[in-house]
Each structure stands twice: as C-alpha cells, then as structure tokens.
Amino acid sequence: MDTRKRKAQLRARIQQARREMTADEIQHEDSSIIAHTAALLRSMSPSETSVAAYSPLPGEPGGQLLLDALHGEASSLLLPICLPGNILDWAQYQGRLALNPGVLGIAEPASPRLGPEAISSCRLILIPALGVSPEGIRMGKGGGYYDRALAQLTKLADPPRTAVLVYNGEIRSDVPTEDHDAAVDMAITPSGIRTFH
Question: Residue 146, annotated ligand binder?
C-alpha cells in the first residue's frame, strides 16, 4: 500500500478515536494540554512569547479555551487565514468576538492580514496534527498548508520552535512519512511535553 493510502487510513482511525472520546475525557485532556502549553510560555522570556497558533475545530486538541489561555500568556498571538493555493496568511488574535468563519470553517481573525511571512516573527508555533512520529514528523489532514508555512522557516538563521498539540496515544510509530512532511521540535500532550530534537 502506498504512503498516501496509509496516511488516509491512519487519519480516519485517529479521527474516529477522537470522536469516540467522552466529553469528560476531552475536557480533561484539553485542560492538561492548555496547562502544559501555558507553563511552556511562562518558562520563556517575555521577548520570546510571540506565538502563532490555530483555532481548534471541534474535536481538535486544545479545545475552545486554548486561544484565550494563550492570549493571556503570549506577548503576541497570530492565527492563520487560509488563502488559495494552500497558503496561510496571519493576523493578530484579538479575542473570540473578533473571529469570523473562514473558508474551511475554521475561525479566522478579523484584524488586518500581516502576510504569509509574518510567521517568521514568532518564537513558538503551535500546529494542529492528527499524529506525530517518535522522530517528530507531523501528520496533518493532508492540505499541506502547514508544510508550506514551515518550509519557509528553514531559511531563517534562528527559526522559531515548533510544537504539535496532540492527544495521548497520537505520538505513533506507524505515522507514514513523505519527503515534504515537516518535522517539529516537540509535542504537547495531556501527559506533558515531549521534545524531539
């Protein structure tokens, strides 16, 4: 079976497992992820707490309280805006009331767009994922938005740290990888933070 089919099957299995979590399990795991993420930000110097994150969809790690928790800890919080060609633009998060539905149903900031290169001003990038390998290779939903966004960071002399937010059991040795798949520095899970490099 080719890599794309294996990815599609694993994505379906992980999404099904997430749907089967109880409301209490989700609340507990999301709260733990938020607590570990906030602790990570508090461990960084204030000048290092410029963050790019994402608006979690229902069932994605972090849940509804993630953005406000990050907003309270970060000196700056950017969220993505999906553009044609699977490119991400970025804009400042200014609270839940300043979010609009985006083209993919993902909440996007109504504040001015800063351009795709704005992500390079951040020191920490929090990335959605369905799974991550023990070597830190992220598996997303297959759109390639984040692979493209992260590829531009490899040219920086001092690139930001990157982290995926995943539930327990989603760091998996069976994550299929392709050459274009971006590696991340760490995974933030309900059990804690795992560093890959």
Answer: yes
